[in-house]
Design brief:
Length: about 110
């Protein structure tokens, strides 16, 4: 299994970014995909997930600002992040069934 995350970068507070995570080596459409994040000096925290049926769950801190989605044809999971805040600064990781992607850094300036 391989997960390739991309889309991170530097953005001002209030801005938006879209992260992508492309999977290979798995039957993508049957699996729940998730995003986590780890801020400097902190533990890795759950951000959102999406089941094979398209049901979604979000951490309270990102609810109504972030949207997780998936494209089974492209084996890709997305995380649309709007109204970004400095406290959203972190390395974002995609995750499936015990496998982590390499992480993509999101930096939100105030």
């Amino acid at each position: 299994v391989q997960l390739q995350a991309s889309g991170g970068g530097l953005v001002q507070a209030g801005g938006s970014l879209r992260l992508s995570c492309k999977a290979s080596g798995i039957i993508f459409k049957f699996l729940t995909m998730a995003w986590y994040r780890q801020a400097p000096g902190k533990q890795r925290d759950f951000v959102a997930n999406i089941t094979s049926a398209g049901s979604t769950n979000y951490a309270d801190s990102v609810k109504d600002r972030f949207t997780i989605s998936r494209d089974n044809a492209w084996r890709t999971t997305y995380l649309q992040m709007n109204s970004l805040r400095p406290e959203d600064t972190a390395v974002y990781y995609c995750y499936v069934r015990g496998t982590w992607g390499q992480g993509t850094l999101v930096t939100v300036s105030s």
